[in-house]
Amino acid sequence: MEKGEILFANKGHELFYQKQTESKRYFRHPKFKAFFYLMGLHKETRKHIGELFDFKNAAIRPDGLYCDWHDTESLTLVRLGFNLFKGWTEQKLEFLSSPHYLFDSRLAPYLVQALLLRYPYRLNRYSLTT
Amino acid sequence: MLQFAGIRFRDEIHRDFFLSMTNMLGSRGSVYHAAYFYLLGLCDTTRLHYADLYDFDTHQIKLDGLYGGWQTGSTTRLTLLAFNLWNGWAEDGQEIKSSPYYLFDCDLAPYFFEAVRLRYPEFCRN
């Protein structure tokens, strides 16, 4: 993996990310890039993107966190996606959006990649590989 | 940024602090300690006050250290991350400050990633 290259889990992930971030000019803003990167990682979040994101108003849909199709991994992705979008955390369950709970999963490298997309100006000297 | 043994350090002082702390802990050292002292070693201030943030007799973190008069914006952030990676701790009523949105939007973010890598090596292998 070369510096500056984005880490994708599979082709479906990459295609989803490209399709969404290229669909509107302002979707190239880091907060949208990080959000769609995370939503593209799981097939259920790709499938149900309309329940998680209001395309008309370009806003997240927090109610999407409570849909019955979620599994543990999709919940992790959505929690981080919502948090990086605008600092959102679930009321009374804010701790579930902290690094201790989010990064303790096999998704960790992808979550770090999402942070790199969200804060490129902070992390322009960082690459996922040592 | 300085690389040593596959770990990215801010500078030599950071590396030396980390090594001296992990050596001091000896066999007691774990991924929890590695991430914790890596973060504490990032700034002069937290290096100076590490004993206010860790109890070497009981081997527990000192939560009161978060409220020390010496804390600054950056050191508060790194202390919050260190506490959170240690045992999931987040300040009551201020949990939002321990979320990635607030923690990683700072100049120390690249080193915060290294701390996450040290804490969860099983998930963060290259």
- The helix content of chain B, as a percent range, equals 40-55%
- Tell me about the largest β-sheet of chain A: 2 strands, antiparallel
- Global geometry of chain A: globular
- Radius of gyration of chain A, Cα only, in angstroms? 14 Å
Order of helices and strands of chain A: HHHHEEHHH
Q: How far apart, in Å, are the first and last alpha carbons of chain A?
A: 11 Å
What key phrases describe this protein's structure?
heterodimer; A: 130 residues; mainly alpha; two-stranded antiparallel sheet; 3% strand; B: 126 residues; two-stranded antiparallel ribbon; 4 strands; 50% helix; globular
Task: Please provide a written account of the structure.
The complex is a heterodimer of chains A (130) and B (126). Chain A has a domain at 30-118. Chain A has seven helices and two strands, in the order ααααββααα. Chain A has helices spanning 11-23, 30-39, 43-47, 49-52, 72-86, 99-102, 108-118; strands spanning 53-54, 59-60. In chain A, strand 1 (53-54) and strand 2 form a beta hairpin. In chain A, helix 5 (72-86) packs parallel to helix 7 (108-118). Chain A is globular and about 35 Å long. Chain B has one domain. Chain B has helices at residues 12-25, 31-40, 44-48, 50-53, 73-87, 100-103, 109-119; strands at residues 2-4, 7-9, 54-55, 60-61. A two-stranded antiparallel sheet of chain B has the order 1-2. In chain B, strands 3-4 form a two-stranded antiparallel sheet. In chain B, a hairpin with a 4-residue loop joins strand 3 (54-55) and strand 4 (60-61). In chain B, helix 1 (12-25) runs antiparallel to helix 2 (31-40). The A-B interface holds A 80, 83-84, 86-89, 94-95, 97-109, 112, 115, 118-119, 122-123, 125-126, 128-130 and B 1, 3, 6-8, 81, 84-85, 87-90, 95-96, 98-107, 109-110, 113, 116-117, 119-120, 123-124, 126.
